[in-house]
Amino acid sequence: MSKSLHQDNKLVDTDFDRNHVWHPYSSANPINDNYAVKSASGCEIELTNGQRLIDGMASWWSAIHGYQVAAINQAIHQQLESMSHVMFGGLTHGPATELCRKLVALTPEPLQRVFLSDSGSVSVEVAMKMALQYWHGQRRPQKSRFITVRNGYHGDTFGAMSVCDPVNGMHSLFSDALPQALFLPPPPAGFDAPLDSAWQQEVAQAFELHADNLAAFIIEPVIQGAGGMRFYNPQYLGFIKQLCEQHAVLFIADEIATGFGRSGKMFAVEHAGICPDIMCLGKALTGGTLSLAATLCTNDVAETVCRSAAGVFMHGPTFMGNPLACAIANASIELLLASPWQQRVHAIEQVLTVGLAPCRDIDGVADVRVLGAIGVVEMKQAIDVATLQARVMANGAWIRPFGKLAYVMPPFVISQQQLQQLTDAICKAVEPV
């Protein structure tokens, strides 16, 4: 039996883990064991074998302040002294109302209503249900189809899957069972690339042809994450927003990965100077501590939803508005706003740009790109994840490659030395063996 000592003197049974614990995007019969973690502090993860790794993933892009953050831990302890949870139906509480106040103040001004949920995928489900119920409230129920672009990713729940890339995404097996969204080509790549008039014409024609049946357009602003870590010109968002307004289609911005500073702006829609009708938030909302998400919408959306036959919005998660998660989110947002986060993200961008540049000269590398606190090395061929991960770990860092991509989204508090070690580890790992 393979076991290793955990920090609380309990053994991590990796044999049991392999045979009974199903991990994300993994086989029920994994070839490789998962690495057992003892603790995490600052920007480092410590394994039970004593190895310390600089975390280049920020726990799937969420732990923007790093780990064991004093202000967040204090908020946890204080909230536990009063209540960890109470149902949100018919009741309310300070942590939730304060969080919603913060989110309304932070996001573009027209977004005035906040619906709290458990996870990013659920926030997308909520957004899609809002859009459908909105058109029932407008007495136009035929507007029930969603429109989006390829290379997008919006989550793994059923509605969210239907607007993820149907060919190159992770959900093609379910395509026959999913509602059929209308997919457009992805915005041409390149944050500073000139606008492609042919793409604009094709998108405009699709809106013109299908507008009578379209409920909402959904997109990840500026950065397409799990669909390929693609960056595109923010002006495309302004163009799409105009089409939505022209053809009476709601605009949903999925800011789950991009929100709270990751792109260099507090929210990625700010690069385009637009406001969506509905916005989804998650991941960094609690600084990577507990699962929590939010869907914000305009007063028009909220009031029209409630003019539908139901008279109310038909959604209500059991743990909606969890006081503990809300208290943590309040602490995380306060910590972010009190920090020089813009300067930190800009500094990360500069170090990533310089540190990953040598990868451009490596055979097998197709592209290197950086935006905000995101660095991407795209290979010409699919990556052997286990092999590349082991090579990165041998140089003291942790990343989670996928497809052809070795990328980093580190905590904002990472030091320059740690960041340089992280980029060095990636450059060494992608060199031909």
Automatic annotation (TrEMBL):
Protein name listed in UniProt: Adenosylmethionine-8-amino-7-oxononanoate aminotransferase
Pathway assigned in UniProt: Cofactor biosynthesis; biotin biosynthesis; 7,8-diaminononanoate from 8-amino-7-oxononanoate (SAM route): step 1/1
A GO-annotated cellular component: cytoplasm
HAMAP family (alphabetical): BioA
GO biological process, one term: biotin biosynthetic process
Family of this protein: Belongs to the class-III pyridoxal-phosphate-dependent aminotransferase family. BioA subfamily.
Cofactor: pyridoxal 5'-phosphate
Subunit text: Homodimer.
Positions bearing N6-(pyridoxal phosphate)lysine: 283
Domain of life: Bacteria
Organism whose genome encodes this protein: Neiella litorisoli
